[in-house]
Specification:
By secondary structure, this protein is α+β, with helices and mostly antiparallel strands. A hairpin with a 2-residue loop joins strand 10 and strand 11. The longest helix is centred in the middle third of the chain and has 33 residues. It is elongated and about 125 Å long. Strands 1, 2, 3, 4, 20, 21, 28, 29 and 30 form a nine-stranded antiparallel beta sheet that branches. Strands 5, 6, 13, 14, 15, 16, 17, 18 and 19 form a nine-stranded antiparallel beta sheet that branches. Helix 1 crosses helix 16, helix 12 packs antiparallel against helix 16 and helix 17 packs across helix 18. The two termini are 28 Å apart.
């Protein structure tokens, strides 16, 4: 009997209202926290990510990499807290992704990056524009896609409305980083110059550009006082009508209309968006790192309702919304929680036999679960899939302490004690065991919360949520349960499972456990053989970050050849749409939408939103399997099925394998990448291997003879402007028409330059006033170059993507690729895993440390609690066998090692230790009363069979809804459920049979605690 235990129980029995009020206050705090707690998919594990990007019109990837990206990257890499920098340079732009350590504040990190960029901005070429910093990942997938269309407005009017009124409404939503438009077409004023007419009048393109630059003339020139008023003076000579612009004089007698046609038109499209075959404007809502997807979705949908009222002629449709899966998954977990609650109560009822007796331990469940919400809120956590899964798993755990207390009180009642005495003495007798088990569980779950990896940050909320719930349940078990038991007469009467069948099972158990205790070494050796088998089978388990999930979306991304235009890519996109259309026609999917030119002209994405999970029998994986053969036969493009996951981690291959080779220069890396890609084709499970560096982008290099240009007095700046306007189009200026900024684009007449030889017929104006043919100062060279240049860790890099077959796990592929790189990569070439592969590598290392820390902390806590090395060793003997049971369970059910199944294994460690403590502590009490070690082990095993069986069955049965559930997130829940149900079910054998045998073997070498205390007392008396 511990004084603390008796005092707490005694107070609760003597003052029942005090015990009831304390529990009610806990519930009220939890209910109050529900109003303010945040709801999201996962804990806030986003690393602070800042993106930098800029445009440099006309610059090649090589120029962007050498003159812009390398300078900016060097400055940004020196910012405090930067963990990785990834840069991609393409024609005319570069994009940089800067990832910071989790402890860095996102706002401060972005400000530091802005300062770093501003310090090198004056060293960048003059043509660099739109250099800015965004608090999100560049090219990040939108969390929502909203399409807008109109039957009454033209595409340019719709684009203007979307930019002015709709995109701004979404950008104002808290947590939105930016809104990306696709399928938009802006109105422009085109000035189409005829090179032959320019030559006939002896004019150059530069003179046309100078004249157009003055078309917008609207400047304030000051103000003057007129009596009491201040009058502003504004000079306005803006020309906004195409006919009036054609009347602008280039020189005396020569109008602009003599050498060019001027008209309003649409900007050259850089993307096409379609919804069910209709052209639309798509808005991608990109969230900031660390923001809440569910909250963004709610606010965006409310904004859409307001916009539909303001613009009744517009149509709106959300084509994809990550929050749909999140809400569904949370709803399914809540259903699982309710089912687990009912199952646990039913199990207790079966054992106690009376409903009134069942309510005594059952009262701990709602108090602990609701009260834990207050603890979650106080610690700044959220309601998410991880914390809700913690509560589901806790449903079986929180009732354990209440069962142990209530069962012991019932046993004392059946021995003839009165209700109040039995409540006080029965609760006090197990006080130490209850506290010990609680501290052990806390010792398992809290240390893992401090691991640095993504897994560690995920487990932070899981560990603390479980710890808080278990602590509350312990308090309730030691206060409410004795109080209610003292007021109930039903506990004094026998009943339940152990009245009939239970006695026979107990007799069978007694007959089996006796020989095992008498020959403990044989028992332990037999268990060791089973453990060795589990160790051998461990290698058969696959390892992945998260299991494949049915997220209600099928998404296909394709990439055409480098240099492919928008029209070519769109034809490939249409072919994929035709492959997906049958699923829409069959009613399995809805909302077939596509974007051609997604960030690059040769890239596209096609997706369908599947109908709700409860309304279909076809899974996302089955649809993807049906598509793969068709996609493999698509000529002229490389399509990939892109699968998402709960962590939002993926490589460039969209859920497959993504790696990068680094080295000193691109030619050397490219040679190594090509060889390595061929070797990767031999790796089992890899297909669709693509080296992102391909020197297949056609490029016409114009080499300028600077000496010749200087002799002819042709300025280089004049040359660049002429080439840009006549080859492509050059934005000269902007006109403001009805508060709309309309770009003026200077371009060559269609057909003027369609062949490299046509360039040699163009003229530029020299400083002397003479027209000089280009063929006098330039030479042409056709070559193939890479369309994109990447950098990782400030080193030049080439990325390689590959698809991973569903039957192969990512861990197997990573191990094979790493071994291949060590054998085949030349000196100076490094390998970096990206995306999901990198996270899995980091998580695997962290989880190994997690298990070691958990076992070490549990042992130290047991050692401190028992004040006995042997007792701690006995409990720890059974814990590794629980992990072995989990391995067998995963092997039999086909469950992989992933973040969710690892949560189940950690749970198993805590439960195994908890049940071992119940038996060992009672055996120690019996030894203190004079029993021999074998007798103490035998009697403790029989006395603790009922509570251990009840707690194990409650925990196992509470996991059934996890494996039987359906709907969003079912795959993740099943990963945990199989470990709990299968692993703990098999681990029960180790607990009930191995623990008594281990106690008989190990404890026989030491004296009891009572004899040690008696020896101390004798020495103290002798000293006095």
């Amino acid at each position: 009997m511990t004084p603390g235990g008796r005092g707490l129980s005694d107070i609760s029995v003597r003052r029942p209202y005090l015990a009831a009020v304390m529990s009610l206050l806990i519930m009220i705090a939890g209910i109050g926290a529900l109003w303010g707690i945040e709801v999201r998919e996962l804990p806030d594990v986003d690393r602070p990510i800042v993106s930098v990007r800029a445009n440099y019109p006309g610059a090649s990837p090589t120029t962007m990499d050498a003159e812009v990206a390398s300078l900016v990257e060097g400055a940004v890499a020196r910012v405090a807290g930067v963990e990785s920098v990834r840069t991609s340079s393409e024609e005319g732009n570069f994009r940089m992704r800067v990832e910071f350590s989790p402890s860095r504040d996102l706002a401060n990190a972005s400000n530091d990056v802005r300062e770093a960029v501003s310090r090198v901005e004056n060293r960048l070429p003059d043509g660099v524009e739109d250099l800015f910093v965004v608090k999100s990942e560049e090219d990040a997938d939108p969390v929502l896609d909203v399409t807008v269309w109109s039957n009454e407005r033209s595409i340019d009017e719709l684009t203007q409305l979307v930019e002015d009124a709709i995109a701004t409404e979404f950008t104002a939503v808290d947590g939105v980083a930016e809104v990306v438009l696709f399928g938009d077409r802006q109105r422009v004023l085109r000035v189409e110059v005829k090179p032959d007419r320019l030559a006939a009048f002896g004019l150059s393109i530069g003179e046309v550009a100078d004249t157009l630059d003055s078309a917008q003339f609207d400047v304030p020139v000051g103000s003057f006082a007129s009596g009491p008023l201040e009058v502003l003076v504004r000079a306005d000579a803006t020309v906004a009508d195409p006919r009036r612009i054609e009347d602008l004089m280039l020189r005396e007698g020569v109008r602009l209309g003599d050498v060019a046609d001027v008209y309003f038109g649409l900007a050259t499209p850089d993307s096409v968006a379609r919804l069910n075959g209709r052209l639309v404007v798509s808005l991608g809502i990109v969230r900031q790192a660390q923001s809440n997807t569910v909250r963004i979705s709610d606010e965006v949908n409310r904004a859409i309702d307001r916009l539909e009222t303001r613009f009744p002629d517009l149509g709106f449709q959300v084509t994809s919304d990550d929050a749909v899966f999140i809400r569904g998954a949370i709803a399914e977990v809540l259903k699982t929680l309710a089912a687990a609650f009912c199952i646990v109560i039913a199990v207790i009822w079966v054992f106690f036999g009376r409903f009134t007796a069942t309510l005594i331990p059952a009262i701990a469940i709602p108090i602990a679960l609701v009260g834990s919400v207050a603890g979650i809120w106080l610690m700044g956590f959220s309601i998410n899939l991880i914390t809700l899964l913690a509560l589901v798993l806790a449903t079986g755990l929180v009732v354990d302490d209440a069962i142990v207390v209530t069962e012991n009180i019932q046993r004392r009642r059946q021995e003839g004690m009165g209700p109040k005495a039995a409540a006080v003495l029965g609760a006090g007798q197990v006080f130490f065991a209850v506290i010990a088990t609680t501290l052990t569980l806390v010792a398992v779950f809290v240390p893992i919360s401090f691991l640095p990896s993504d897994a560690g940050r995920l487990f932070t909320e899981f560990g603390f949520a479980l710890a808080i719930t278990v602590i509350i349940s312990t308090f309730v078990a030691l206060t409410m349960c004795p109080m209610l038991a003292s007021l109930s007469d039903s506990l004094g009467r026998s009943g339940g499972l152990f009245t009939g069948l239970g006695r026979r099972l107990m007799a069978l158990y007694a007959a089996m456990i006796g020989p095992m205790i008498r020959a403990p070494l044989v028992t332990i050796v037999g268990a060791g053989v089973l453990a060795a088998g589990a160790a051998l089978f461990y290698g058969e388990l696959g390892e992945e970050l998260v299991p494949p999930e049915d997220r209600g979306m099928v998404s296909v991304w394709l990439q055409g050849p480098d240099g492919a235009g928008l029209d070519y890519t769109d034809r490939q996109v249409v072919k994929v749409e035709e492959m997906l259309q049958p699923f829409v026609d069959n009613g399995v999917a809805e909302g077939l939408y596509s974007i051609t030119g997604r960030y690059d002209l040769n890239r596209g994405s096609i997706g369908v939103r599947l109908i709700p999970w409860s309304e279909r029998t076809t899974t996302q994986a089955e649809i993807e399997d049906a598509l793969r053969d068709q996609l493999d036969s698509l000529p002229g493009a490389d399509p990939r099925i892109r699968s998402g996951n709960s962590l939002g981690l993926r490589g460039g291959s969209g859920g497959g394998l993504s790696i990068a080779l680094t080295g000193p220069n691109y030619p050397d890396i490219a040679a190594a990448a090509d060889t390595f890609a061929r070797d990767l084709a031999e790796v089992t499970g890899l297909s669709g291997i693509r080296v992102q560096y391909q020197a297949t982008q056609p490029q016409l290099s114009i080499s300028v003879d600077r000496d010749r240009a200087s002799d002819l007095r042709v300025p280089i700046s004049t040359l660049s402007g002429t080439l840009r306007a006549l080859i492509d189009e050059d934005e000269i200026s902007e006109l403001t028409i009805d508060d709309e900024a309309v770009p003026i684009l200077l371009q060559s007449a269609a057909g003027a330059v369609r062949d490299p030889a046509d360039l040699m017929n163009l003229y530029v104006r020299a400083d002397t006033g003479d027209l000089v043919p280009l063929n006098q100062i330039v030479s042409l060279n056709e070559e193939g170059v890479a369309a994109e240049l990447d950098r990782h860790a400030q080193r030049r890099a080439i990325e390689i993507d590959a698809s991973v077959a569903p039957e192969v796990t990512l861990r197997e592929v990573i191990d094979d690729v790493r071994a291949l790189s060590q054998e085949g990569l030349p000196d100076g070439i490094g390998l970096i895993f990206l995306g999901e592969a990198a996270s899995l590598d980091e998580t695997s290392t962290a989880m190994t440390a997690t298990y070691v820390i958990a076992l070490l902390v549990v042992f130290l806590v047991l050692l401190a609690q028992f004040e006995s090395l042997t007792s701690a060793l006995v409990v720890m003997t059974t814990v590794p066998f629980g992990v072995c049971a989990a391995i067998y369970a995963m092997l039999l059910t086909g469950t992989t090692i992933n973040i969710y199944s690892q949560i189940g294994v950690l749970m198993l460690i805590g439960v195994m230790a908890k049940n071992g403590i119940l038996l060992v502590e009672f055996a120690n009490q019996l030894r203190d009363q004079g029993r021999s070690v074998p007798d103490a082990a035998y009697e403790a095993a029989l006395a603790r069979l009922r509570p251990i069986a009840m707690t194990l069955i409650c925990t196992v049965m509470s996991g059934l809804p996890l494996i039987l559930g359906t709907g969003p997130g079912a795959e993740a829940r099943a990963s945990i459920g199989w470990v709990i149900v299968g692993g703990l079910g098999m681990a029960a054998v180790f607990t009930l049979f191995l623990t008594p045998a281990a106690y008989a073997l190990v404890s026989s070498t030491t004296r009891s605690r009572a004899s040690s205390a008696q020896a101390l007392e004798e020495e103290l008396r002798a000293a006095e």
